[in-house]
């Protein structure tokens, strides 16, 4: 039995955990050696091993590493992991040799006393939220394995590592080591280190001069330094620290072309990862520099900007098992050298063209992974591909392939797990009674031809997790066996077909995985909504003909649903009032139906809701309180209904980005609280009964007033696994119908960048507030069909992003401000039927609009026929008025001052007056004598 003091220490350690107690439910009774995760010495009873890593999560390797086999897809949630702090009682387990607390949610510090565990050989604390490393770790003199990766450590000194003289394995990845200037020296002092991982640590660049004295290690074989923004200087340390490296990962850095010369001395390399760097020149120029070419097993050069070149000759790489050249600008036709050991090949996202080569079995006997997607390959699929019996991953999507896929193409692919032929012009010509030799995990066939009948061969597929067969020309009903094809369907997409009939009841019995997305949209399905599996998270049923909700909806509909899209169906009648059951619901779309009655009170209990669409229905009455939702709501579209009430209800949502209430019966004025909605980007209150004035504070809405502000793009990401690659799964966006540029437009992809105000067709009065010109991010402004008066704001030209402006059918008067000429992006404007007068300002935009944009005013100038007689510009603002006043006042003041300076003096001072008049008499006398003398002289001459 275990030692009593150690048992008590374990119980105290358990008390420090605040979640995941069910994982330690076995921690009771007298013998702690029988507790889950605890191992003891059989002779002494001392605890020697503590293994509290309970996660079943299997991390799926990135394609960069080209996994050997299809991994099991397992998932975990936070509730299945321990959380809390590591209590110092753990230090009483003095005989521990193995401690694993990784993949939990432990916070705070590692106890200082952990340095007293002198017998500890393996310490694993990865994937936690620990934030402090005690220097006492340097006392663990027997430690051989240390994994502290993926925590929140912020370190400035790693010198303590030099005391761990027996350390063989070290992983500090994904911690903050930005301030560790001399990290190379600290690492180099660990004498027997054989495996080192320092990925994504923000490590400083290496100074080559500081490492000249370091002797090369004879033990370090595995080195991973990815995602650190290293430049070429890192190679001076890599070449110095070890001459026997077998695995080197420098991917996701900033290495340029000069690095390749360094590899002519690393002759023991078996795996080399250089993806996502800045390697240029031709790919073929790099290969001769690899002195380990004959022994290299893995080569990853993907996502480098190599100069365009054809697929190089890899015949020297006779041991190569995995080759990834994704996104490396390879062009031309595809031809393969003899690579007898090749297991995995990724040439996706290049410019390969021509037809697919014949896959000779003698050349590709070992191939299990082949990705040629996103190229320009054309022609038919060769039959020889069906002879690659070891293939489990085949992707040829997004090419220009055509022709048919028959049994002969896949007859020997018994190990096939992932099959991706989507976005080609391929047709499945398979016998309905054919029994496939494989059990697929994922099928991607978007935009191929699987129809017109629902493919019967899928009935045999019992392990499907992903089924992506949208837009595949199926014109059939769902077979009853569809619900039986998988016990763990994670993602189903049969959208954009012509499936008809009702959904089979058997669907409700499918045992989906923890995360699942089902998309049946854009078909001809009808009937009431059937029960769905309880673990469906995202459900897309839009653009069908579903007519209503079953009476059992509240009891049978999956309460785990996070995204529910029932838009554009034939739903009628009132909504069920049980929405408080759906506490995970984030997006609800019921738009474009014929639903009626009031909005259910239970909507106010949707605490996680982000987006609600009830537009284009027949809802009536007041809106229930949504106060519990205001912390989460970002998007509200209740437009085109018969809803009543005032705006005060809606303007309490400080995080709201889109508010669309157009086409209802909303009354009252716009309250000042509108100005507190600082995140608002789209406001559409058009076609209601709103009265009063536009608030002066409207210019305070920061999301609209920052020229560079674009806020969060309004989209959500499905949580379904993509299984290694993106095949169009996973992104869907909110959409909204807005009046823009004189018409109605559906805003989807650009909605996150769209900033608009539409309060048209109401009963607003008063002037357009000058502060509205502070909303410089506005793209569309529509205040038409109101009773607005006064001038157009003089600073209207500040709205330089404006593309659409409609102020028509109001009572605005005065001249058009000259700042209109600053609206360089304006391509729609309507000022018609106001009382505007004067000249239309000159600009590249204003003269390009039709005359109808200015109709019903007293304007003149191009593009109108009537020319202006008075072209004097209108006094635009107070500053101009002041200048005009000073202009006229100055001469008047000058005249008065001059006149009274002279005349006033003459009136007051008599001596000046006599002298002034005497001067005039003398001048007259002089002029008289001069003229008389001149006339006499002329007479004498003639």
From TrEMBL:
Membrane-spanning intervals of the chain: 885-908, 915-936
- Predominantly, its location class is membrane
Task: Tell me a Gene Ontology molecular-function term this record carries.
Answer: kinase activity
Q: Which residues form the Disease resistance R13L4/SHOC-2-like LRR domain?
A: 85-282
Instruction: Give the species.
Output: Vigna unguiculata
Tell me the ranges covered by the Leucine-rich repeat-containing N-terminal plant-type domain, including all copies. Answer: 4-41
What's in the keyword line of the UniProt record?
A: Cell membrane, Glycoprotein, Kinase, Leucine-rich repeat, Membrane, Receptor, Repeat, Signal, Transferase, Transmembrane, Transmembrane helix
Q: Name one GO cellular component term.
A: plasma membrane
What domain of life is recorded for the organism?
Answer: Eukaryota
Coiled-coil residue spans: none
Q: Which GO terms describe its biological process?
A: signal transduction
Compartments it resides in: Cell membrane
Which Gene3D superfamilies does the annotation name?
A: Ribonuclease Inhibitor (3.80.10.10)
| Name listed for the protein in its UniProt record | LRR receptor-like serine/threonine-protein kinase FLS2
The similarity annotation says: Belongs to the RLP family.
């Amino acid at each position: 039995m275990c030692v009593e003091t150690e048992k008590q220490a374990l119980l105290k350690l358990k008390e420090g955990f605040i979640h995941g107690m069910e994982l330690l439910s076995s921690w009771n009774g007298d013998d702690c050696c029988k507790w889950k995760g605890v191992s003891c010495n059989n002779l002494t009873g001392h605890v020697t091993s503590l293994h509290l890593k309970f996660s079943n999560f299997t991390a799926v390797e990135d394609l960069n590493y080209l996994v050997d086999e299809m991994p099991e897809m397992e998932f975990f949630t936070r509730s299945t992991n321990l959380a809390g702090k590591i209590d110092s009682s753990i230090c009483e387990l003095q005989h521990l040799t193995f401690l694993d607390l990784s993949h939990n949610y432990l916070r705070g510090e590692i106890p200082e006393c952990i340095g007293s565990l002198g017998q500890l050989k393996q310490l694993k604390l990865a994937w936690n939220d620990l934030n402090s490393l005690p220097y006492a770790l340097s006392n663990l003199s027997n430690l051989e394995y240390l994994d502290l990766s993926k925590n929140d450590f912020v370190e400035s000194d790693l010198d303590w590592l030099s005391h761990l003289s027996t350390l063989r394995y070290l992983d500090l990845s994904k911690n903050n080591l930005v301030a560790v200037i001399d990290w190379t020296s600290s690492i180099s002092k660990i004498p027997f280190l054989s495996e080192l991982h320092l990925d994504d640590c923000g490590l400083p660049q290496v100074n080559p001069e500081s490492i000249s004295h370091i002797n090369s290690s004879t033990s370090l074989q595995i080195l991973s330094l990815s995602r650190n923004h290293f430049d070429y200087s890192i190679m001076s340390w890599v070449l110095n620290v070890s001459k026997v490296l077998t695995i080197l990962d420098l991917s996701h850095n900033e290495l340029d072309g000069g690095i390749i010369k360094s590899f002519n001395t690393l002759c023991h390399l078996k795996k080399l990862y250089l993806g996502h760097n800045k390697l240029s020149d031709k790919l073929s120029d790099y290969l001769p520099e690899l002195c380990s070419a004959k022994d290299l097993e893995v080569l990853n050069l993907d996502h480098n900007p190599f100069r365009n070149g054809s697929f190089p000759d890899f015949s020297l790489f006779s041991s190569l098992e995995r080759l990834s050249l994704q996104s490396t600008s390879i062009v031309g036709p595809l031809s393969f050298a003899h690579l007898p050991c090749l297991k995995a090949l990724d040439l996706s996202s290049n410019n390969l063209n021509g037809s697919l080569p014949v896959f000779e079995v003698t050349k590709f006997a070992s191939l299990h992974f082949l990705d040629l997607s996103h190229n320009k390959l054309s022609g038919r699929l060769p039959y020889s591909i069906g002879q690659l019996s070891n293939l489990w991953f085949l992707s040829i999507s997004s090419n220009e392939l055509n022709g048919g896929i028959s049994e002969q193409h896949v007859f020997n692919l018994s190990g096939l797990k992932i099959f991706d032929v989507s976005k080609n012009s391929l047709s499945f010509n398979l016998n309905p009674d054919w029994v496939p030799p494989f059990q697929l995990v994922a099928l991607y066939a978007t935009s191929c031809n699987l129809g017109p009948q629902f493919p019967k061969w899928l009935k045999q597929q019992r392990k499907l997790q992903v089924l992506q067969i949208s837009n595949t020309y199926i014109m059939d009903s769902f077979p009853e066996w569809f619900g039986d094809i998988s016990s763990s369907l994670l993602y189903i997409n049969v959208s954009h077909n012509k499936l008809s009939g009702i959904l089979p009841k058997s669907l409700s019995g499918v045992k989906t995985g923890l995360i699942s997305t089902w998309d049946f949209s854009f078909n001809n399905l009808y009937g009431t909504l059937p029960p769905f599996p309880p673990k469906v998270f995202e459900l897309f049923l839009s653009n069908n003909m579903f007519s209503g909700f079953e009476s059992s909806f509240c009891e049978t509909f999956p309460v785990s649903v996070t995204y529910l899209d029932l838009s554009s169906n034939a739903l009628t009648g009132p909504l069920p009032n049980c929405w408080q059951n759906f506490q995970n619901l984030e997006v609800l779309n019921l738009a474009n139906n014929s639903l009626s009655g009031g909005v259910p009170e239970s909507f106010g209990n949707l605490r996680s809701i982000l987006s609600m669409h009830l537009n284009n229905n027949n809802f009536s009455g007041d809106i229930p309180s949504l106060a519990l939702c205001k912390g989460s709501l970002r998007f509200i579209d209740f437009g085109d209904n018969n809803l009543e009430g005032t705006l005060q209800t809606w303007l309490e949502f400080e995080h709201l980005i889109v508010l669309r209430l157009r086409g209802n019966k909303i009354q009252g004025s716009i309250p000042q609280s509108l100005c507190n909605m600082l995140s608002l980007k789209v406001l559409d209150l058009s076609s209601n009964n709103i009265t009063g004035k536009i608030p002066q504070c409207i210019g305070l809405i920061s999301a609209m007033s920052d020229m560079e502000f674009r806020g969060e793009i309004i989209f959500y990401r499905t949580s379904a696994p993509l299984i290694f690659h993106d095949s169009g799964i996973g992104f869907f966006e909110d959409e909204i119908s807005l009046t823009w540029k004189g018409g109605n437009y559906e805003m989807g992809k650009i909605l996150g960048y769209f900033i608009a105000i539409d309060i048209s067709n109401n009963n607003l009065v008063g002037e357009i507030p000058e502060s509205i010109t502070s909303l410089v991010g506005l793209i569309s402004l529509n205040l038409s069909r109101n009773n607005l008066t006064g001038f157009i704001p003089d600073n209207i030209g500040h709205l330089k992003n404006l593309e659409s402006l409609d102020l028509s059918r109001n009572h605005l008067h005065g001249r058009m401000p000259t700042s209109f000429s600053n609206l360089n992006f304006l391509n729609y404007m309507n000022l018609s039927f106001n009382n505007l007068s004067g000249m239309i300002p000159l600009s590249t935009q204003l003269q390009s609009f039709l005359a109808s944009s200015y109709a019903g005013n007293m304007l003149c100038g191009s593009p109108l026929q009537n020319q202006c007689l008075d072209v004097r510009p209108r006094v635009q603002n107070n500053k101009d008025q002041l200048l005009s006043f000073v202009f006229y006042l100055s001469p008047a003041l000058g005249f008065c001052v001059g006149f009274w300076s002279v005349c006033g003096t003459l009136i007051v001072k008599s001596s000046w007056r006599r002298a002034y008049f005497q001067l005039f008499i003398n001048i007259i006398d002089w002029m008289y004598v001069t003229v008389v003398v001149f006339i006499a002289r002329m007479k004498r001459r003639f």
